[in-house]
Amino acid sequence: MTIAEKLIARRKRKGLGGRILIPIVVLYVAFLVIAPITALISGALQNGLPAALNVFNAPELWQSLQLSVQIALAVVVIQVVLGTATAWVIVRHNFRGKAIFNGIIDIPFAISPVVVGYMLLLVFGRNGPLNPILQALDIRVAFAVPGIFLATLFVSLPFMIREMIPVIQNLDRVQELAATTLGANRWTTFWRIIFPPLRTALIYGVALTMARAMGEFGAVLVIGGGVQGRTATTTLYIFHALEERQYVEAYTAAILLGLSSVLIVSVADWIRHRSEH
Amino acid sequence: MTAVSPQVKNNKARSPKLGLRAVSFIYILIMVIIPVAVIVQDGFHEGVDEFWHQITLPIAAHAIMLTLWTSALMTIINGVMGLATAFVLVRYNFPGKSILNALIDLPLAIPTLVTGVMLVILYGPQQVLGQFLDQELGFQVIFAPPGIVIALLFITFPFVVRTIQPVLLDLDRQQEQAAATLGARSTTIFRRIIFPALALPTFSGSLLSFARAVGEFGAVVIVAGNIPLKSQTAAVYVLGAVESENRLAASAVSIVLIAVSLTVMLFTNYVLKRRQI
Predict the structure, then answer these.
(1) How far is A245 from chain B (nearest CA, A)?
(2) Is there a single domain that holds both residue A26 and residue A66?
(3) Can you tell me the ipTM of this complex?
(4) Are B113 and B214 members of one domain?
(5) Is residue A207 within 8 Å of A198, Cβ to Cβ?
(6) Do B214 and A254 count as a contact with CB atoms less than 8 A apart?
(7) Residue from B83, B93, B102, B78 nearest B167 by CA
(8) Which terminus of chain A is more exposed, N or C, with fewer CB under 10 A?
């Protein structure tokens, strides 16, 4: 150890940070993150564990959960196909306005969920420009499941694309060229050369999209209207339960939803860590 | 014939490429560009004067100002505490450090509605902490601006920490060691060496959290409620306007929200890009 390192090491033990900074940060995280989570759990258990578990007998909760999962899965499928294609176009293709195109991808990050729902209402609603086509085809978007689906698709749009861009950039193009030279067709090249290094990022993108999709509330509230049971996602179920002062129902469903999101992201995190080592 | 065949081959290679590009263009066009264009057209279709009138109505103006100042206050606190948290996580070893590190990402996975529910339970007027703050200190959190700031802090907590962390990990320790050998105090080292390197990530992470906070709805609507001229934020105002079919008001305030977030985001990206070159 050099003298300089020793000096730094001594500071590390004794300095400003060790005594003051660590307790401040730990207290801050405890107050900001841990306290609310603890409060939610104790809130759900305020009438005892049986009352909380009894919530799981409500068919409305299961219906809403089923709808949330179905919509999230459909969104994930679209994002995997079109999101990866878009990421591919951004990395591999050169065209005019590419920088602008790349910037547009992040717009959903910047738009309030309520505004997202409202925008879709304007486009697909009664007075919207697409209304004649939708009526001719007899498709209902606003205040129906297709609207919730579109809103969820919009808010989760950047996740997959942003996850895939760096890994596509890191692909070794020499391998692709070698495969083509050796007579592999596009399909074989894709599955054997391109796909394997993208797999981990793909899983992570799927998890982020899934968690975001299941938890979407604002956009779904505006476009879904929320007739209980018919177009109620889990977030809408929680919101209605709160409005009807059924607190144990709301809190238990909130725990269920929060836990599933955290679990999905944690599993993806674990897979990513495992593949890195 | 020999002159034609390379061109034919070339066309064959190009068509799937163009197809892929067309698909991703149409995807982004339908999902992002058309909805944004429709809302902008809708907000201005009665002229700029009417747009201005809508956003300067007392309730709308109050909602916009409340959104801006609570987001700004959150950004400052988040910048300072995010910097402190990242510093503690990278530079110090203490028991429970890995748990602290894992807790940082939790707000990203937890749906914002669930965040709102958690905070209402913790700070609600019937709860122990909420009652204490309200009656002993006269400090109302729920249905008031402090609740909004706390909700925004929770949601955006990872933004600053996770932007600073990688930069701090890459920071050259030799400069600090040299300064320490030359007799610089730790505060001087922080001010002259560490902070200049971290200023840009702190700044960009904070601005991104601001862009995100301005549109936040799920947590805020639960925590702040919907009290005009007191705790109603711009996103909640838009919801009310949509529900009462006040289209002009909804579109005008939506445009303000989009414009603020997008400007902040584009500005942040611009600064980051310029510094990289």
Answers:
(1) 12
(2) no
(3) 0.87
(4) yes
(5) no
(6) no
(7) B83
(8) C
